[in-house]
């Protein structure tokens, strides 16, 4: 009654490895309910924007369209492998990462700036439909409800629709790497502004002309063409580089906050390095979790390096 049957079903199936005992944890039930709520809200946004779609067309794919299609095809391939082996816990962790971060948090944000394109609408419909089909065995009710509202379906009910099949025609590895760089750059830029309480009107010097990044970071009115002789913060990821110019009076509180951030980062880096040096952990933990730890370690090292300058 509190969380619904879909949340309970998904949690019981994906929380532990096949053949092992499950220790029931209500906080994880809450997380599962929040996850389903995230999918519901994201689906409402997609359905609102694709209501006039008559057919799927992939004629003029943007770089971001190609990125999400590649991520989707990779997760389809991975999910089929895990489902065949009854590795529902691995299915759960990998699809969660894709759905929550790649689709809901990143691609939908990209799509907001290209929402009039029939190609982007088609990609939204295609990927959402695939997500619903992958999740349906674990969340039968909410996926059926959303599926019934799709403008383009391949069956009367999701129960008799085809499970997604891997399609290598929609794999674009070059675009995948470029957009991954974009996402990392945007994340770093926002983090630096938040951590340093930099206002929205701070001036920014960039070395690129990427409309999506400029719109997402709301830089249109803040761009400058020459450097300024004031305090600056550098954000760099691959070929993308930005320098944020902002100077404020450094208080004793700011100094203490920076010292605490440095100390916290050092402790976190030491913990991750110890974890990743453990061969038992690296060989037995899910590959995507280990890789995530490696990426976070590199991010923390970069952040520490910036703070120590």
What can you see in these coordinates?
The chain has 309 residues and is mainly α. It contains 11 helices and 3 strands. The chain has helices at residues 5-14, 26-49, 63-84, 88-111, 118-135, 140-147, 173-195, 211-216, 252-276, 279-284, 287-307, and strands at 203-206, 232-237, 240-245. The chain has a 3-stranded antiparallel sheet, covered by helices on one side. α1 (5-14) crosses α2, α2 (26-49) packs antiparallel against α5 (118-135) and α3 crosses α7. The radius of gyration is 22 Å and the shape is globular. The relative contact order is 0.09.
In short:
61% of the residues lie in helices and 5% in strands. It is mostly helical and 309 residues long. Strands 1-3-2 form a three-stranded antiparallel sheet, covered by helices on one side.
List keywords for this structure.
11 helices, three-stranded antiparallel beta sheet, mainly alpha, 309 residues
Low-confidence spans: none
| Terminus-to-terminus distance | 54 Å
Rg over C-alpha atoms, rounded to the nearest angstrom: 22 Å
Name the average pLDDT.
92
Work out the strand percent. Answer: 5-15%
């Amino acid at each position: 009654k509190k969380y619904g049957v879909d949340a309970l079903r998904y949690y019981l199936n994906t929380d532990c490895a096949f053949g092992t005992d499950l220790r029931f944890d209500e906080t994880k039930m809450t997380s599962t309910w929040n996850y389903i709520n995230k999918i519901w809200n994201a689906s409402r946004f997609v359905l609102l924007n694709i209501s006039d779609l008559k057919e799927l067309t992939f004629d003029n794919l943007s770089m971001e369209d190609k990125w999400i299609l590649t991520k989707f095809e990779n997760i389809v391939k991975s999910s089929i492998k895990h489902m065949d082996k009854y590795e529902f816990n691995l299915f759960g962790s990998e699809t969660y990462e894709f759905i929550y971060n790649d689709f809901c948090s990143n691609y939908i944000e990209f799509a907001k700036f290209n929402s009039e394109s029939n190609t982007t609408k088609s990609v939204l419909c295609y990927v959402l439909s695939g997500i619903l089909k992958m999740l349906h065995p674990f969340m039968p009710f909410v996926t059926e409800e959303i599926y019934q509202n799709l403008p383009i379906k391949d069956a009367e009910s999701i129960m008799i629709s085809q499970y997604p099949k891997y399609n290598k025609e929609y794999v674009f590895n070059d675009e995948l790497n470029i957009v991954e760089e974009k996402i990392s750059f945007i994340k770093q830029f926002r983090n630096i502004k938040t951590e340093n309480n930099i206002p929205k009107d701070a001036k920014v010097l960039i070395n690129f002309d990427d409309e999506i990044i400029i719109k997402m970071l709301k830089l249109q009115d803040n761009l400058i063409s020459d450097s300024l002789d004031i305090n600056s913060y550098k954000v760099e990821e691959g070929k993308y580089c930005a320098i944020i110019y902002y100077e404020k009076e450094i208080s004793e509180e700011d100094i203490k906050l920076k010292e605490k951030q440095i100390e916290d980062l050092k402790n976190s880096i030491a913990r991750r390095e110890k974890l990743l040096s453990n061969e038992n952990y690296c060989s037995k933990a899910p590959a995507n979790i280990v890789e995530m730890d490696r990426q976070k370690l590199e991010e923390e090292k970069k952040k520490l390096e910036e703070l120590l300058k």
